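Practice problem: predict the structure.
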Amino acid sequence: MDLVNKFIGIDIGTYNTKFTDIAVGKKTIQFGHSLVTRTPEYLVQNGRVADPAVLAQFLKQHVRRKGFHTRKALIILNDSLVVTRDIHLPVGKPKEISAMIRADASEYLPFDVSQYTLRHKLLTPAAKTPGSTNYLLTASIKTDLVMDFYSAFRMAGLKPAAVDVTINCMMKYLQRIVKPESQQTVAMVELGATTCKIVILRKGIPVFQQIIANNPRKIDVMLTTLLNMERNQAEEFKIKYGLSFLQEENEDEESKAVGPVIQNQMDLILSDVYKHLNGYCSRNGVTLDRIFLAGGTALMKGLPGYIESAFSIPCSLVCTDESVKAAKPSRRISEDGVDLNQAFPYFVCLAGAAMRGD
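Answer:
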């Protein structure tokens, strides 16, 4: 194996935090010890750290007690903190490109551009001919917000090695599993606790991204009321039973009773998702070849088949491939003993974050 760098990947979501040991090589990414645990309420609000010291204590508790040994950390930030833009810029030297990006950013950022950390990546192969243009994705984030995360990680005894954002991680992983030569147009939809995120790849090139405020957490809130459950119990119920009430063999009375409530709320979310997917396809005269689902709610029973039927587009959970895999023997992912290969939708963004050269 060509594994040369080891990290602990940490994705702090509004509802769940994901930890995993990642070994990265030139051609291979291998996941080791992994964990999904609840994010304490109010620890991170709208993607911002409420108190770096409290976050540090939370990280320290799980890293030390749960058997993680690597200290170099990959960090994923919430997209709500990041301003992204797709832009076309003329061919130029690296310093010239950076200057043009800063000049462009100064036109739309609400504060002085000097308060922001700016990053960019090419979305298409680099153009070199004078007079031609490059297509780039730019990202801007307030530097002090990043430093709050850095501070918390350092207080926890971790060494931040790289920072990424969900949308970019989704794009990178989609590019890994769908090769340009396939000529396909594919989408990944991440169903998070507070937002749904969509990226579309066409012939290997990222062409569309969108964040939707309509979110699956509303289902959990409804279930806590209807079934008198705690929040974590409601999420487990949603994933275990989901849309199974639509299947004739389902005999669980509770799931039959609240199944229509889950379906109605899911339909509202999916109608927004479909609007954006169909809008892109209609404007560009293309059809989607496949939808990949990511995020914890993607594991909801019956959801991929339900979407495939509703959208008339093949739909499946995002999964590992020959170059991204779990260590053998497969390690457990959580206190409940869910296998990594079964729950990879939780970890796809950490896989994308590990692809540093992409």
